[in-house]
Design brief:
The protein is α/β, with parallel strands linked by helices and 578 residues long. Among the domains are: 122 residues, no CATH class; 184 residues, 3-Layer(aba) Sandwich (Rossmann fold), CATH 3.40.50.300. The protein contains 21 helices and 18 strands. The strands form five sheets. The protein has an eight-stranded mixed beta sheet. The chain has a four-stranded antiparallel beta sheet with strand order 1-6-5-4. β5 and β6 form a beta hairpin. The longest helix is centred in the first third of the chain and has 35 residues. The chain is elongated and about 115 Å long. The protein binds adenosine-5'-triphosphate. Adenosine-5'-triphosphate (ATP) binds next to α9 and α18.
Length: 578
């Protein structure tokens, strides 16, 4: 395509020696002017060159695309790929499985989190490692793909973060696992194995989740199972509910054969701090079920969110609906002046409008309607294996529709502590567990000396009646050296079973029955953690002091003497309640 231009002398050119250029000047290609260049590029011979180029380019690109499609298809047929939402249980199983793999333990690029999760992979002796208390979780880095082997198959694991459009930069994490196999069954096998290993590793724990953002569940804790012996109720109450729930869970066929919806709901009501929540945690541990806590007064909860929450519950679990009355009362009061509940971390809620008083603090309550709640209760029951526990401190304000059998079948009333409970609480509090034996014997001399100085105000612990003091000489002038509350000590008391039983009898004689909640009594004993003798000696004064404190109407009502824990089957309720 080189263009050569011939130089011939033009007749118009002057014929002096300068006008005609020497041949040497006309030999090389002359620079093209723009129009000439365009003309040349569009000339017939250039056109074919262009066409050839285009064809070759199209062929190469077509081939590249086909090969990549074939490769993709090949990969798809060779790999099984699964993607999990990071909040999903299956992601937890896989993360646990992955955490045991060498590739992950030796990875140099990982993310560490202390929020949520269950992977305790700090080493073999986690229990003795203080860091384990922080529940450190290793997560795959979003920038890396990890590879491992499972039953002879190569797998890769990666984590991806996707920012959801329109949700103010809210990012969702996904876990992707790819297995080099043609059989999807292997993935199921891996998931089964991972779930099994996860369950074994966490069998001493129960998962606790709460409703978050209105319509999703978030796991907030893996709690150590609470042994039945740690919840002291009147004889037979815990066993009754536990046996009932066990019996129910094993009766699926009976219900199916008769076409009766397979569902069971329990209503626990009565005095705050009497052990309702503790009993539910114990039952969850005994049945091996996770707990999903649903508070109807949670901000932003309405009928639609409630429905969505119920739809996202796992098949088999315990749903704990706290303060089930609270959503339907005009105002909700924090019972802040009730001496019965002051020492109790869960502040009680008096629900009737008359109870609110001046000290009451208005709280935002949910927008759940009664029919929305009834639908939710029916939704909870729609899956076999789900058990509903509802709690309330205000039984009388519940709508009869809630109480009818099929929704809340068994109603258990909790009372203030009976003499039996007081005695048992004292014994359990001061009797050593086998793991504490060694520590307790090293405290022997200290406790013996406590025994000889009963009644005197000891300095190694403080009580709610005798607030914590620091050494006044070390305090700057003008600063109080007396603090309400009690100082914690890790030491434990060292009583033999007989000593504990004798002291428990004396303690139970002093504490009037059905007057204090178990939470309050536990709070009192905490102040005498290492001084059981002083706890007994000073109990009478404490009772007098408590009685002098002016109770709220709600507390006064609760302090009326009562019988043993009352159990009512829903079908034994008065007509109006069914
Ligand atoms: N019956 C009990 N046996 C042993 N401990 C108890 C008992 N009742 C209460 N406690 C202790 O008191 C504290 C509060 O108990 P819990 O939360 O179970 O009471 P609750 O009846 O659910 O109260 P609320 O109605 O205010 O939620 C816990 O630390 C628990 O260990």
């Amino acid at each position: 395509m080189n263009a050569t231009v011939a130089t011939t002398a033009s007749p118009s050119e002057p014929s002096n020696g300068f006008a005609s250029r020497p041949a040497a000047f006309s030999d090389g290609p002359l620079p093209l002017s723009l129009p000439r260049m365009v003309f040349t590029l569009l000339s017939a011979s250039a056109f074919w060159d262009w066409a050839r180029l285009l064809l070759i380019g199209a062929l190469v690109e077509g081939l590249r695309r086909s090969l990549s499609k074939i490769w993709e298809k090949l990969c798809q047929s060779l790999w099984v790929t699964a993607t999990f939402d990071f909040d999903d249980d299956a992601a937890d199983w896989l993360m646990h499985w992955l955490s045991k793999k060498k590739v992950f333990q030796t990875a140099r690029d990982i993310e560490v989190s202390t929020r949520g999760g269950t992977i305790d992979d700090l080493g073999e002796n986690d229990d003795s490692d203080q860091e384990a208390e922080y529940n450190v979780v290793f997560l795959p880095s979003t920038s890396q793909t990890y590879s491992a082997w499972y039953k002879g198959h190569y797998i890769t694991i990666s984590r991806d973060r996707v920012t959801t459009a329109g949700s103010y930069g809210h990012a969702e994490d996904y876990l992707q696992i790819r297995m080099l196999t043609r059989s999807p069954a292997l993935l199921r096998e891996l998931l089964r194995d991972a779930r099994k290993a996860y369950k074994v590793a966490n069998e001493h724990l129960i998962e606790v989740s709460v409703a978050e953002d209105g319509d999703r569940w978030r796991r907030v804790a893996m709690q150590t199972k609470r042994p039945p012996s740690s919840v002291i109720l009147d004889p037979g109450v815990l066993e009754l509910v536990l046996d009932d729930a066990r019996d129910f869970l094993s009766s699926k066929k009976w219900y199916a054969d008769r076409g009766i919806p397979f569902r069971r709901g329990y209503l626990l009501h009565g005095a705050p701090g009497a052990g309702k929540t503790s009993m539910i945690h114990t039952i969850a541990g005994e049945l091996g079920l996770s707990i999903y806590i649903l508070s109807l007064t949670v901000m932003g909860l309405d009928d639609n969110n409630l429905k969505s929450l119920i739809a996202h519950l796992p098949k088999s679990c315990i749903v704990l609906m706290e303060d089930v009355d609270a959503a339907f009362t005009r105002s909700i009061k924090r019972d802040i002046v009730d001496p019965e509940t002051q020492s109790h971390t869960h502040q009680s809620r008096a629900s009737s409008p008359e109870d609110t008083g001046d000290s009451g603090k208005e709280t935002q309550f949910g927008r759940v309607t009664l029919s929305g709640l009834l639908n939710a209760l029916d939704g909870i029951a729609a899956h076999e294996g789900r058990i509903l526990f509802a709690t309330t401190n205000s039984y009388g304000s519940l709508d009869p529709a809630l109480l009818r059998p099929g929704r809340l079948d068994l109603h258990i009333e909790f009372h203030l502590a009976s003499t039996y409970q007081v005695k048992e609480l004292f014994k359990r509090f001061y009797t050593c567990t086998p793991s504490e034996e060694g520590e307790a014997s090293s405290n022997r001399s200290a406790d013996d000396s406590e025994k000889t100085q009963t009644g005197s105000s000891s300095t190694n612990a403080t009580s709610s009646a005798s607030p914590s003091r620091s050494d006044a000489s070390t305090m700057p002038e003008g600063i109080s050296s007396v603090y309400p509350g009690s100082v914690h000590t890790s030491r434990v008391a060292n009583l033999s079973a007989t000593q504990a039983a004798d002291l428990a009898d004396r303690f139970a004689e002093i504490i009037p029955a059905r007057t204090f909640s178990m939470a309050t009594l536990q709070g009192y004993l905490m102040a005498y953690k290492t001084r059981p003798y002083a706890a007994v000696e000073e109990a009478a004064a404490w009772v007098q002091k408590k009685k002098k404190e002016k109770p709220t109407p709600a507390a006064a009502a609760r302090m009326e003497p009562n019988g043993a824990a009352t159990v009512a089957e829903a079908d034994e309720l008065p007509e109006s309640a069914t």
